[in-house]
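Example with several molecule types.
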Amino acid sequence: MMELIEFDGVRLEWMEDAGFEAMSVELTLRETKIRHLQLKEMVCVAPETSLGDTISTMQRRRNGCALVAVDSNLLGIFTERDLIRKVVGRSQPGLERPIRDLMTPEPAVLSPDDSLLDAVRLMNEGGYRHIPLVDSANRVCDCLSVINIVDYLLECYPQEVLALPPRPDQNFSEPDGA
Amino acid sequence: MICPACGSVNLPGADRCEDCLLPFTKLDIPLPIEGLQKRLMEDTIADLKPQPAVTISPEAPVEEAVQLLKGKSVGCVLVMDEEIVVGILSERDVLYKLGGMEGSVSSVKVSEIMTPNPVTMEAEESIRFVLHQMSVEGFRHIPIVSLDQPPRIVSVRAVLDYLHQSAEDAFPDPASR
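Resulting structure tokens for the full complex:
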């Protein structure tokens, strides 16, 4: 791709010799399948698991979402939002309640072969942050989180996003590397 | 490194072309070209349309914060001591620090479970700062502060919306027409 740029007052014919031309994000979203993303290992619990155990599993695994399944058959999803809405508060239900009573049943799902664009659309329309992935035999295999998509897209633009120069007025509270 | 001006070959990492003295340092800075790459380089945080933040005092009981999270359907509340942002309380904090607590949480104060001193940004800064923080630090909400406006919040959902918009502009969904 040849392009003319202004450079220190000289007009140059500038060849993009970076080796590759980054695919546009629009194309990336449409062409990339969800299975290409590196996903965090999902947290999966049985419907009889108590609320307390589910919460401690989520805390231990640092995951904001737990899938509820029997023999890989997805029954529901329990997320931070469910915790806020149904658990924490004045009349807190006991921690021994089974997660079955508190989960959101029958969440929207996608297949690992769907594109990122499908995932983005579904998240936007439904206001979801997590989408369980099920394979063709209807077995749950993973959980896609919104941050996975953002991360993946940013990897396409490492120079622009991940290697930002510091701001001139920036102060570091502790020395670098400390 | 081939000099784009005179075509002579230089050692990799050279600061300027040995033949024509053209400085190479600026060549490493990406130039906005097209599509999302261009938008990422040129847009500011204001283009993510930050929403007004839901605020609470650090002395308030945590129940009140949970009611706010629930009632306003937001993912985080900003903890403000008068005009100063002292912390942020997100769903994640509730899960990590409150989940699994027996009985009532009425004795817990917001200041005990909030994340203190969150990273804040200004709306005039590049959108890339927000994306960087979210991706590298894993934040889902970033408070946007300014001197003459109440604080606002950029959430990961706004970022998703922004990316979605970029994609839809390029490839409209045939189903939605």
